[in-house]
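Extended Data, panel c. Modelled sequence:
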Amino acid sequence: MRHRRIAELMTREVVSVRGDAPFKEIARVLSRHRVTAVPVEDGGNRVIGMVSEGDLLRKTADQAAGPGDLPTAPGIEAWERAKAEGTRAEELMSAPAVCAGPDWTVAEAARLMEVQGIKRLVVVDDEDRLAGIVSRRDLLGVFLRQDDDIRREIVEEVLGDTLRLDPASLTVDVRDGRVDLTGKLPFRGMIPAVERMCATVDGVVSVSSTRLAYDIDDTGQGGGRS
């Protein structure tokens, strides 16, 4: 099966700033390009971090405090205070940047975003140079695949090429990304494998195998749909 790669979904024209970019230049870049964060590059065009509106707002919040204001919360880390006092991108940025490679699959990128709790990934090449950026919205694009394309991939690549099943023994119905499998398999133990493989096809929302029957129960569980 062919999973879509990040290189097919990412935005290639990405605005960035250098590590020595001053605060106001970063603010102008964010405003001019209507983005909330940009990658930070060193002198060799390697990505070293990300600077966001939130990073800049730390300084605003820090400067807003006056003599009569409440003292800084005791839980504030030293690195957060240092960032609030920073004046250049390399001092303000979050580092290291959370990055992905252009050959990553949608599933790999989505998993990293979920673990890190972020909305976008910087895409870099083998030398850590900026190649693009991919967002949650970009990843959701795989669910815009046509049902006919999804069905064709399941029938030809999953059932035919990978599992070596007779396509005539199974019926695959796809509606709005929901896959419904009907027919008969040689063994009961194949049902979970078929479900898992169909679920990994790009654009699949859910898989139902309740109408799948089988010839032989090789699981020893008894009962079933033979």
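The two ends are 29 Å apart (CA to CA). This feature is highlighted in the accompanying rendering.
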